[in-house]
Design goal:
This protein is an alpha/beta fold. The protein has one domain: PAC-like subunit (Rossmann fold, 3-Layer(aba) Sandwich). The protein is 21% helix and 22% strand. The chain is built from seven helices and eleven strands. It has helices at 16-19, 57-63, 110-120, 158-161, 184-196, 211-220, 233-236; strands at residues 33-35, 50-54, 72-77, 89-94, 99-104, 129-135, 144-146, 151-156, 174-175, 199-206, 250-252. A nine-stranded mixed β-sheet has the order 1-3-4-5-2-6-10-8-9. A two-stranded antiparallel sheet has the order 7-11. β8 (151-156), α4 and β9 (174-175) form a beta-alpha-beta unit. The longest helix has 13 residues, at 184-196. The radius of gyration is 21 Å and the shape is globular.
């Protein structure tokens, strides 16, 4: 005779997706919003020639010394995060009269990526062109990645791809290898630019935490403006590094 206590329960007669019908759906999350300093209220909408969105740790460390309270233009707030949470906002700074920088200092959940992209590219911020600086996720890359070599690739919106090589936002970069993918906030912003027919280039780099990548980005962005970049090797590791991150020397995906 079977032991009703220790025997595994029989399989449910309902499919797993049917079981979800008996649980109440979660209430929708409130939409992110922009908060402007009182001195900036009369300057909406913002219409920069270029909007740079720094997501990767090397890109954040590259611009770190340029992000001061005096250059702060607005902040994107995620309402579900407590105000006491460190770096819970995406701060938007003015690098010059024509260039804005959005510093994404904390990872954005995938289910919130497009909502954030809609706010960054809305009737409040209307850039002529966009550069997104993100990292390569090893599980999304098809090919060999070495920790000893800094690499960078790009993806472009259709409006940017139509431009001649000398007019490209990020000239000289190879396209992301076929079969590799990008997800998360970087992909959501590029998709939003595609819908709005905005010139956009997404640059993804590897390794995720490396001073050589910072130097690579510095050379890549040198022609955009006379910025006084400054960083140390230690600063590269301060931004976006998860506690459970494990360095991998060679990855075949």
């Amino acid at each position: 005779m079977e032991d009703v206590i220790t025997e595994a329960a029989p399989p449910s007669r309902l499919l797993e997706e049917d079981l979800n019908n008996f649980t109440p759906s979660s209430p929708p999350l409130p939409s992110p919003f922009l908060l402007f300093p009182h001195t900036q209220q009369q300057q909406q909408p913002l219409k920069p020639t270029l909007l740079i969105i720094a997501i990767s740790s090397p890109s954040l460390s590259l611009f770190h010394n340029l992000l001061t309270p005096q250059t702060l233009t607005s902040s994107l707030i995620l309402p579900e995060l407590p105000l006491s949470y460190p770096n819970n906002t995406i701060n938007i700074h003015s690098l010059s009269s024509t260039i804005l920088l959005a510093a994404v200092q904390n990872p954005i959940p995938d289910n919130r990526a497009y909502a954030v992209a809609e706010i960054l590219l809305s009737n409040q911020i209307c850039p002529d062109s966009v550069i997104i600086l993100d990292s390569i996720q090893p599980m999304n890359h098809r090919g060999l990645l070495s920790s000893d070599e800094a690499v960078a690739f790009k993806l472009e919106s259709f409006a940017e791809r139509k431009k001649a090589n000398e007019e490209k936002l990020l000239g000289g970069l190879d396209y992301y290898p076929s079969g590799s993918v990008v997800d998360g906030l970087g992909a959501a912003i590029l998709g939003r630019c595609q819908i709005l027919k905005i010139r956009a280039s997404l640059c993804v780099t590897w390794p995720q935490f490396d001073s050589d990548v910072v130097l690579l980005l510095k050379d890549l962005l040198r022609g955009l403006g006379e910025f006084e970049f400054g960083f140390s090797d230690d600063e590269v590791f301060k931004f976006g590094r998860s506690k459970d991150h494990v360095f991998q020397s060679h990855l075949y995906i």
